[in-house]
Structures are given as C-alpha cells and as structure tokens.
Amino acid sequence: MFRIVGVAALAVLAVVTICLVVIGSWWWLVAAVVATVAAAVGVYDLLQRRHSVLRNYPVLGHMRFLLEAIRPELQQYFIERNFDGRPYDRDVRSLIYERAKGTAAELSFGTERDIDAPGYEYLVHSTAPVDPPDEPHRVRVGGPHCTQPYDMALLNVSSMSFGALSANALRALNNGARKGGFAHDTGEGGLTPYHLGGADVIWEIGSGYFGTRTDDGHFDPEQFAEKASDERVKCISIKLSQGAKPGIGGVLPAAKVSDEIAKYRGVPAGEKCVSPASHSAFSTPRELVGFVARLRELAQGKPIGFKLCVGSRVDVLAICKAMVAEDITPDFIIVDGAEGGTAAAPLEYEDHVGLPLTDGLMTVHNALVGTGLRDRIRIGASGKVASGNDIVKRLIQGADYTNAARAMMMSVGCIQSQRCHTNKCPVGVATQDPKRARALDVEDKSERAYRYQKATVDQAMRLMASMGVTDPAQLSPHLLRKRVSATEQLSYAELFEWLSDGQLLTEPPDSWRADWNLADPDSFSPAGFNARHHSAERTSTR
C-alpha cells in the first residue's frame, strides 16, 4: 500500500507543480519537471515485471542500480569489511545474475584471484581437449531395491521450504525446473501445491514430519504413502541434519507461520514452528536403514535417501556397518556442507559446527567405497554450489550430482539483503507477506531459473571437455590441484587418502582403523562413542 500511496503522492505533486507553472511563476518549471519524471518512473516501476526491487520500492529502488554501476569499488569495500565472506562475492553474484538474464557472464581483464597464494585450486586442462556431448550428463539414482529409478540432472534446486520462501518464489523455481528438466527439493516444510507445478520433485522429510505427521508429531505412514504416490514425486529424502545448523531442528519464525503454512505443516498458525533436533522414527543406524526400507516399500519402490552434514566419521561408518549388516542401502545420500546457508540459524552453528562440504563429501565417498557400497548409492553435494567449476570440483571430490539453494534463490531475484528472518524480503523471495511477494513475477523469474541452470551445467560440461573428459566417470582426483606453498602444487590424489573398494571390510588402513573399530551399527555417537572411547583410553593407560 505504501508504494502505491507514494507514487500517487508524486503524481499529485506533479499536477500541482504543473498548475503552478501555468497560473503562477515559471520558477516552478524545474520542480514540475522533476515531479513529473518521478511520478512517471514510479508508475512504470509498479507496472513492470522484470525487477522485484522496483515493484516493491518504486523510484527509491533505482538507488540499488546506481550502486551496482559503481560496484567494482563500493560493493567490494562492503564485502571485505562487513560481509565476512558469507554472501557470495561480486564475481559469483555477477555470474549468477548474468546467466539468469541470459547475457554473457564474462569478466574483463583476467582473474582477480590470488593464484599465487596457498589454497588456490585449479582444474587440470588437457592439451588435447574434446568436444562436449550434445546433451548434459544425467545420473541414474536407484539401487538394487529400487523399482522406479530416476535420472538426476547435474545441478538441481536444493531444499527450500514453503515458509522459508514465498509461494511465488517456489512457483518460479518449480516452473524453471520443469522447463529445464532438473529436480526441485521441497525442503522439510511439507509437500505443497507450490512444489507440484509440474517439475520433478524430491520430497524432503525432516524430524517434524511436516505433511506426513500424526497429531502428536510422529510419522504417519498412511499420509506418506498417499502423497508419495504422486507421479511428480520422484525421490524422497530423509533430513538428518542441515549444513548451516547441524545438531538442531529447523526454525520458522512465528511471523512466517501463516494459516496456509500451518495447514500444510500441520502446526498452529502464528506460533514459532520448531522441528525436533532428532527423529522419533529411529534412533540408531540400524533403525535408520530400516526406516529407509520402510519408506521405499510405502513409496512403491521410488528412490529413498537421506541428507546430512557430516560431524563424526564414526557416525558415517556406523551407518555403513548397518547397511552391510542389513543388506539395506539408501539410493542416494546428500552431503550438506557446513558452509550451507539458511535464514534461521544461530551464528555459532553457522560458523562453528559441522564439516565443510569438501571434507564431508570425501568422508562419505571413501566410507562407501571402503565398505563396498559405492556402486549402489549416488552422492549429491549441497553447499554453496554456484558455477560450472563448482560442479566439476564436487564430482572430482566424490559427488555424482549437485544441488544449489542460494544460487537458485539469486536466479529468481534474491539480492542477499539478509532480511529473510524478518519477513521483510525486499524482492519477495524469502517472505510470507503477500504485498512483498507479489513483486516477484513468476513467469519472468521462471525463465531466469531455467536459463541459470542450463548455462551453468553447459559450462560444467564444457570445462570437462577442456579437461579431455566426456563423462563424469572419467574424472579423477589427479585433475584437481591445490597450491600448498609458494613453490608447490599437489593434486587431490596426493593430498588426500582414497580408499579402495571393500578395503575397510578386509584390512582398514591405520588412519581409519580406530574409527572403524568404534563404529557401532546399533549406536550413534556421542553417547556410545564417548563411552567406548573413554574405555579405550583407560585401557591403553593401564
């Protein structure tokens, strides 16, 4: 309402100043011109559909674009001094926005990275590059117990719930995914009509069991079976933990729990919605894999997997031991990095809990290889994936495909204002205020999401072709190198340990033996882990 009143006030001011020019003094001419131009700009801003900022902030919103015009100096200043590296830097943001708009995402005057500093990573190109394939690679998700496998794209929409995002933002992402043939993860907030616009859907089920819960908050198998039968639901993902806040449940502020959201989640409206920290349907690794099998049966053979941010390697190995013992495997595992973002996480969790994606990804990959399970399970990588090189690097580190959240949000208009938790997102992406959400034009932003994903995957395939690779299966740790000093670079094959198939089952290497021995298929750490760990310490000191 404020924006309409503001533009109306400008229009009235324009009329008044024009009248003063006609019946009064020509000294009012400058004011009349300024007021008329401002009113005309305001009307245009309200009616246009391309820029969400201008639809919510007519006239004033142009200040943002003025700042963008001088961003090489001003924006970099604020990034270095205020943002502490959390939002994407200027180059990545520019890449996402330009690809979403369908324009060239090139950077003049070479790299701005310090390629001589330790930590710089690079992909190894081939002297004899090849042509990329005509169609991007897809990944078959579905193990030996899956009867309805799914071919996953290399880049998909990561988990974002209705509640965290507006209905219009979800519509835009879903429609973009439908156009591009990539998957849309629902997040843990339930399976809503805004996720069911025609795209392939990954239905995520968290510890709150939203959308498939009983009155007392437990898992409801009947609701699950009914909703899982929808042909648009291609996979189901059990959320164990989230990268930005591993170890605690999800939180949706009370201001965002509208009547509609409460309906889809099965919770009271207007009250803060908090997911439990852990699941009530299982409490041990063995029970977890049993729950996977149960969901797969209820879903009539559709792929079932789980998502986690890795903390203890012992926990990962305990789950692997349970898989081996029960001969039950998930069809996929999504590894979420600690650098993942969210709008509702304590700062201490964002910065100090959980493994980064690189470490977590390689831990899960090696654990599955070492237990002889890798060929049955696909691995997805989720956590600050934004560009083609991000995709290729994650594939080298052990992933089969990737998911992106923030980059997808930016493709539909997010400007990283960091106001998600206030319900006052200026562009209508992360809000439940219908007056703000209306600024996001679904048709325009759907096309942007589609273009961004397509251009990024195409660039990943182009990068692999430059490396002499036509299929991700040909990638190896030797093709990703890191500068470790001013005079030395080492490949990932040299920097990290890579287990051989079944090695943990026969002769665990010294670096894994202690964790392998501690891993218990009937107990998650820390309780069981700490008891056995302390017992081992006491035994060793006697």
Structural class call reads: alpha/beta
The outline comes out as globular
Rg, alpha carbons: 26 Å
Helical content stands at 40-55%
Tell me the count of domains.
3
| Tally of helical runs | 21
Task: Tell me about this structure.
The protein is α/β, with parallel strands linked by helices and 542 residues long. It folds into three domains: 2-85, no CATH class; 138-495, TIM Barrel; 511-541, no CATH class. Helix content is 42%, strand content 11%. The protein has 21 helices and 15 strands. The chain has helices at residues 2-23, 29-47, 52-56, 62-69, 74-83, 90-101, 167-180, 221-228, 259-265, 285-298, 313-326, 347-352, 357-370, 388-396, 406-411, 434-437, 442-466, 492-495, 503-506, 510-518, 527-541, and strands at residues 121-123, 138-141, 150-153, 155-157, 183-185, 200-205, 233-239, 251-252, 273-274, 304-308, 332-336, 378-382, 401-404, 480-483, 489-491. The strands form four sheets. The protein has an eight-stranded parallel β-sheet with strand order 4-13-12-11-10-7-6-5. Strands 1-14-15 form a three-stranded antiparallel β-sheet. A two-stranded antiparallel sheet has the order 2-3. The longest helix has 25 residues, at 442-466. It is globular and about 95 Å long. The termini are far apart.
